[in-house]
UniProtKB/TrEMBL annotation:
PROSITE patterns: ZF_DKSA_2 (PS51128). Residues 27-47 are annotated as: Disordered. InterPro entries: Znf_DskA_TraR. Signal peptide: none annotated. It comes from Halomonas organivorans. A zinc finger (dksA C4-type) spans 80-104. The keyword Zinc applies. This is RNA polymerase-binding transcription factor DksA. Keywords: Metal-binding, Zinc, Zinc-finger. The keyword Metal-binding applies. Residues 76-106 form the Zinc finger DksA/TraR C4-type domain.
Length: 107
């Protein structure tokens, strides 16, 4: 059970790393920061902003996945890091990178 979750998290981590590389390549392709005075490329600017927000999201998720993997390595992967209670299996199955129980998370 715990091993499955570790495998799932490692898969997710690799996927996120790949996704981040694609976002970064995309940004470099656009040639760095967009000049805000240039009004002739509104679509590219928008696209760039979307990619930047997707990139930030993927970075957050990757950090959370790495954090969860570190907790699993310490043998505390199923323990809520705030209250110390066991996180229920249903929640871990639904959110494999969870490190807080339902109550601490507030959902
Ligand atoms: Zn808790």
């Amino acid at each position: 059970m715990s091993d499955d979750r570790k495998v799932e998290l490692e898969r997710l981590r690799d996927e996120l790393k790949e996704r981040l590389e694609r976002y970064r390549a995309h940004r470099q392709h656009l040639g760095g920061p967009v000049d805000r005075d240039m009004e002739d490329q509104p679509l590219e600017t928008r696209d760039d902003e979307v990619v930047a927000s997707l990139e930030a999201e993927a970075e957050d998720e990757l950090a959370q996945v790495r954090h969860a993997l570190a907790r699993i390595r310490e043998g505390r992967g199923e323990i809520c890091e705030r209250c110390g209670e066991v996180i229920d299996a249903g929640r871990l199955a639904a959110v494999s990178h969870a490190t807080l129980c339902r109550e601490c998370r507030g959902d």
